[in-house]
Amino acid sequence: MAQKPSIPKGTRDFSPAEVAKRNFIIGTIKEQFELFGFQPIETPSFENSETLLGKYGEEGDRLIFKILNSGDFISKVDDVTYSSKKSSSLAPKITEKALRYDLTVPFARYVVMHQNEIDFPFKRYQIQPVWRADRPQKGRFREFYQCDADIVGANSLLQEVELVQLYDAVFTNLGLEGTIVKMNNRKVLSGIAEVIGAKQLLVDFTVALDKLDKIGEDKVKEEMLSKGISESAITKAAPLFAMAGSATEQLEQLETLLQDSEMGMAGIHELKKILTTVEELGLKSAKLQLDVTLARGLNYYTGAIFEVSAPNGVTMGSIGGGGRYDDLTGIFGLKDVSGVGISFGLDRIYLVLEELNLFPKAVDQSLQVLCLNFGQKEALAALKLVSKLREQGIKADLYPSATKVQKQFKYADKRNVPFVIIIGAEELARNEFILKDMASGGQKSCSLDDNPSSFF
User: Fold this and answer.
1) 312: part of which helix (H) or strand (E)?
2) Residue 205 in contact with residue 191, Cβ under 8 Å?
3) Section 66-77 average pLDDT
4) Tens-digit pLDDT profile for residues 380-409
5) How far apart are CA 111 and CA 320, in angstroms?
6) In order of start, what are the domains of the chain with their CATH numbers?
7) Minimal CA–CA distance to 288: which of 160, 183, 175?
8) What are the tens digits of pLDDT across the range 286-305?
9) DSSP codes, 44-73
């Protein structure tokens, strides 16, 4: 007996209806990307390992899917390395490529390789799948799509403002009222690490802090202690965990905490500039909020950082995120190219729209008209009509075989086809067809010589 097939954990098959809904989201995002002047690019699904490793921090590196070398790769490993059973020593010997973890690092590599062809500032968008060896759970998959927009080659804070507007435009067009765009600044976090005496442990500090809303204050403090951050340093950082009030009030508290940190004060200045500009311009449906505990664990962020939460009442992780990276291309040899970008989480946005019942009713309607099949001559006339309908942008099809009419109607009903066309022998003799409305049950006779689109 053949074994029942399966797919890897954290991956999914998509039905026609699901693909239609995903395409609706992608189409909405893509439309706004292009309205904002972004240009599309694509990069390979896998990169050289050296391109990806070391760019996402220790935790990120562990989640990168590595691709085994082709051929008899084990025979090329020396006995000492093989017998050590240490993955850190063995991996470089047996794998040289990896599936991309995100779209930002491959984009930085792209910019460096194509720098002589690019007009700066370069605004690019990219909609492609990425892979992470994460533990699958609701809203978190091992294979998922990212929809990214980035601007490189200029360091103006107006670009951060524009990206907040882009978030607002996309979620407004998706009907997602009340999304929260949370913002912080890595300079502020660096300043905090500096004033509490944990400057050398900035990465450990931010990685732990980024988990505050997931594991709570006590667990975050435990993790900080385990990483070597002292009890006194954590006590000095305590105001962060309870900071509240308006953005202005929180910034005042930060100014007191960071008054001796030049880096921290620079971050506060940037936050003020973005917040006041966005407030003056206004947003349609999203809300921009300051979140001083937002850290985003990726090492390459250097300035403003963003994370988007679903509207109140929807339990879901972030549905978007991003930030400023001042020298990401520097790791590939191109210095002093500032960049800033954001990402939309397609899969999580899908789940939110589904939960809130916000997809348009006809979004998965793959067929508007089905012609029934009554035999060879009738089918030929139906095919001619189908061709006319398709030329006029109407999704039309002919049932392939002259089977029982009841079976054909049942098929149309299962496909949620709104209209059925009947061309039997009598209709063909009169040069007519019958148009049946599947919802109301009403029907009317129409001439085959008339413009068919006028009946819909």
Assistant:
1) none
2) no
3) 77
4) 999 999 999 999 999 999 999 999 999 999
5) 23
6) 16-44+101-355 (3.30.930.10), 369-455 (3.40.50.800)
7) 183
8) 999 999 888 876 667 889 99
9) -SEEEHHHHTTSSHHHHHHTPPEEEPSSSG
